[in-house]
Known about the structure:
Elements: H1 4-7, E1 21-22, E2 37-38, H2 39-51, E3 72-74, E4 107-111, E5 118-123, E6 128-132, E7 146-148, E8 172-177, E9 183-187, E10 192-196, E11 211-213, E12 244-246, E13 252-256, E14 261-265, H3 267-272, E15 281-283, E16 309-311, E17 317-321, E18 325-329, E19 340-342, E20 371-375, E21 378-383, E22 388-391, E23 411-413, E24 445-451, E25 454-459, E26 464-472, E27 475-476, E28 481-483, E29 504-510, E30 517-522, E31 527-531, E32 545-547, E33 577-580, E34 586-590, E35 595-599, E36 615-617, E37 637-642, E38 656-660, E39 665-669, E40 681-683, E41 704-709, E42 714-719, E43 724-730, E44 742-744, E45 748-749, E46 752-753, E47 758-763, E48 769-773, E49 778-782, E50 796-799, E51 803-808, E52 814-818, E53 822-826, E54 830-834, E55 848-853, E56 874-875, E57 893-896, E58 899-900, E59 905-907, E60 910-914, E61 924-931, E62 936-944, E63 951-952, E64 961-962, E65 965-966, E66 994-1000, E67 1019-1020, E68 1025-1029, E69 1032-1033, E70 1039-1044, E71 1052-1057, E72 1065-1074, E73 1077-1078, E74 1086-1090
Parallel strand pairs: 64-74
Antiparallel strand pairs: 1-2, 3-53, 4-5, 5-6, 6-7, 8-9, 9-10, 10-11, 12-13, 13-14, 14-15, 16-17, 17-18, 18-19, 20-21, 21-22, 22-23, 24-25, 25-26, 26-27, 26-28, 29-30, 30-31, 31-32, 33-34, 34-35, 35-36, 37-38, 38-39, 39-40, 41-42, 42-43, 43-44, 45-46, 47-48, 48-49, 49-50, 51-52, 52-53, 54-55, ...
Amino acid sequence: MPDDKQRWPAPPQQASGRSCYLRNTPPGDEQPSRHWIPRRIMTLRIVSFLALAWAIQVHSLDAQALNRKPFKSIGHPRALATSTDPFQRDTDSPNLVEGRELNQPQAVAVDTSVTPFIVYVADTGNNRVLAWKNAAQFVNGAFADLVIGQKDRYSTLPQGPGQVLTSGLNSPAGLAVDRNGNLYVADTGNNRVLRYPTPFSQPDDYKIPDMVIGQLNLGLNVANAGGITEKTLALNSGSQKTGLAFDPVGNLWVSDSANNRVLRYRSTDLASGQNGAAADLVLGQADFVSRFTGAGRFSKTGLSGPAGLTVDDKSRVYVADRFQRIVVYDNLRTGASALRILGIQTQVPGQPPPPPINEASIGGADSPPQGVFMMGARPAVLDTGNHRILIYDSPEVWPTEEAAFSPSARTVFGQETFLTGRPNRGDPASLQRTQNPTANSLLFPYDAVQAGEEVFIADALNNRVIVAPVTGPGVIGAATRVLGQFGFIYSAPNLIEGREFSSPGAVAVDTASKPQHLYVADTRNNRVLGFADFARYRPGDRADVIIGQPDFLSSTLNHPGGDASVPSDSGLAQPAGLVVDSSGNLYVADTGNGRVLRFPKPFEQPQATLQRADLVIGQANFTARLIEPSARTMRNPTGLAFTGESSANTADRGALLVSDSALNRVLYFPKPFANGMTATKVIGQPDFTSTSPNTDLGRNFNTPRHIAVDSEDRLYVCDSQRGRILIFDSAPALSNLPTPVQTLGLRTIEGRQELTQPVGIAIDPRGSIWVADFQPSRVVRFPRFDKLFTNNFADSAVFAIGLQGLAVDRFGNLLVSDSSHRIQYFVPEIAITNAANFLTRPLAPGTIVSAFPFNSDFCGPVRCDPAPFGTETATFDSQPVPIPLPREIADIQLRVNEQPIGLFFVSPGQINAPLPMSLPSTGTAGIDVYRPSTGQIIGFGDIRLDAASPGLFSVNSSGAGGAASLNEEASCRSEQVFFRCFNSPTNPIARGQVIQFFGTGQGAVEGAPPDGFPATAAISVQDRTRVSFAGEFVDDADVLYSGLAPGLIGVWQVNVRVPQRVTPGSFIPVNVVLRSIGTVTNSTRITIAVK
């Protein structure tokens, strides 16, 4: 090692021109102090601790599997998973959630007690209620002003008893506002109704209800707890809406769906605010303990799964139920019969049958009406399954029941005429529900309310609330505003902007590109998104390329037509598989269209140009869709893979393999590729027309999902429904229905099969086999092929939720798509410790840390990487500009939250650096090792943060043993005898003298220099520092200094006088305590010698 005097720059000088010293006397004291130590020598010695082999501790670190916490989540606003809880998340909703989007809204209410009106929306699929405080002036896609039922704008998981938020919401499906502005929410998934007192007047961000109906308290959610009574509810009955409405005198009416009844709660009982109020009246049953289903559509004495309801100004009650009708009551007593029934078209004798959809009929066999509301004196029905609203005359002018069993509607909204019921007014020739919405179309409307001269409509499966004007008596015009979407033509659940996913399928990495491009099959959004440099992705970043759609806001199936039966060269239908060839062309398994498309080098195409495929395989042309089994057709292509370029036969170099999951086979297509080409081989079936999974269990597939090919052209197939991976010899040499050479996943471990439902597979650069097992939601690693015959079991795993696809980048790092609508990026784990004591406890701002690899993370099936952090060993002083500390040494960066920090030392197995002083003193931070030249994330770990994390350096650099401390000696001012001042059993300190300790982890210090610079003066910590010798604390007056060490970077110095009462000895234990945290643990016993 070079001589220290040549390796370190001269220290800075004080203003007086004297050499800088570490002192424990006040500045300006002219009497020579016996405690002054030349800073230059101290700097050399202490920093040598940082630059020498602290790696002694790496061997004692527990070997672990891959980091269970993903390095980043792509398509998700916040990555919450931790290594101890890899399933942690705050949403499992599709697409973007940020507080202005909707996911199947089922109820809407307007508070007209205030001006301007307030609009509330039950965002059912996101388990929350959103509120806008000005119902008259919001713009399309406006952010909500209030979130109810969740802790913030980003969270959507079901809440309630047993969850994080006991008072939170689970599938809210009904809303009503009383005359005082209190909000009532049907918390359907928790079988209760909650009251929120005037939400906008409550000061807390999280709104807490003040009353619960249907349960005795907020901690309960069991349906009909203790048996059905007047105090119980059973609301959780599938997709049924829960109706809430107030009558003219303030009584609350609730549709108790699973109990087949409607309950009334008196206004006086509501005013008391007591939980578990008792209903005083029931409709649909003879008493409060019955729950019989009504006798049929024509019966007036019973109900079946009542949904939405309303009450008119005459106190008539209108109830929608599963019998595809609206039941109208005016004799309001328990067990009363209905007055009339809407929605039943009867056959007139001698006349032809009426059309199935008309002005008198409501609903169909599988789609009952979900809501009813009043437009003045006129009832209006949400005819949900027919995607329309029917508006009737006032009951006073209905024809008699003898003249017409059900009266006819007078106007309709959502359809051109009374005779159609198409989704979004779509093409009558198509049965698909994919037509883009408009300002006057609907897709399963659930609820509506009139406020002033506008109607607010919860258009559930268009994932929006539209606001339409009342243009005449009982007439609704085209909508003028929309909530939940940016415009009327959009309908995806939640928002899509190009930075989110809905059930992503395959992921693929273009490992030849620099930087590496990432492609994601955004299956439910009918598109593929491309990220130019996914390693640099930050939450909220938008994709750089889109395929299958004209823009980042659209999700049309088979753009531009929106019809599943009409493909095109630019549209997609639920793409599930991806692969990139050696030239950078992208191949897409367009699963819903039964084909594979090639998109030429997507990142080289003009950004404003719609990407178009130049090759189709599996169909005759770009508009064909034939799904019968043959050598030229596919039904549900899913997995894609290429053979290598080493085959002796040119046609087999880069040949394409496609798994067809519906036809239980894998097809082989050699080059040259051509539109509608014929496969030359079929794997998993004896011929191209057979599809059975059961004729030869050893060689057949049952729903094959993704596939992979290794460097020797062996084919790996996820035989999903049989819980196994089948491995076949060189793909170019295979014949039809070949026999696999190896099978993985069938071993029994702890009573279950090793693999249960493998859906994804990838081979990393070392040859290791990674398998995504849908249940139990994990990715496992098997050794490379040539080791399988002696060791064919998985050796490590990472976890995700509902795995879908899997890929590895060129460095072997994992990318996993999961059912939480995100891509998880996993890299090897590193350990980050306090550099003084090597503890992995929480770290404080400014702490000098050491980063080590976990050996098992950097190991392949044959050997471990001997140099995970590169091959060079270098220190900061070897760099052209050593101060401030360089943020890159030997092509290595240590980054905190992806921002590089200054470095002391880099070696193949260890990195030393001080953490930024600006870090918070609570929470966590992510630390990664990054190679700028290649974009490789070498390793990652997260640290917990604390206000202090004190540790003392030791002489042997192990974190234990003799402290790296200096005795008080007058001769120590001389460089020639400086090293005699180090405390040791042969050089003990005398009692009554001052000893100097050096450590790190003191935490943030007010007045500290900028990161990477040395302290130029004594800067004390603000907190009390306590020191004990042999378990006995010294007086505070004997702790002479605790703060930053002048001339050093990140070093904490403590000067303390050794009390006379200390018993002399060679190994006296020392403990320094800061913020109630000590430097001593069971494994870090620091000592000094005292005489």
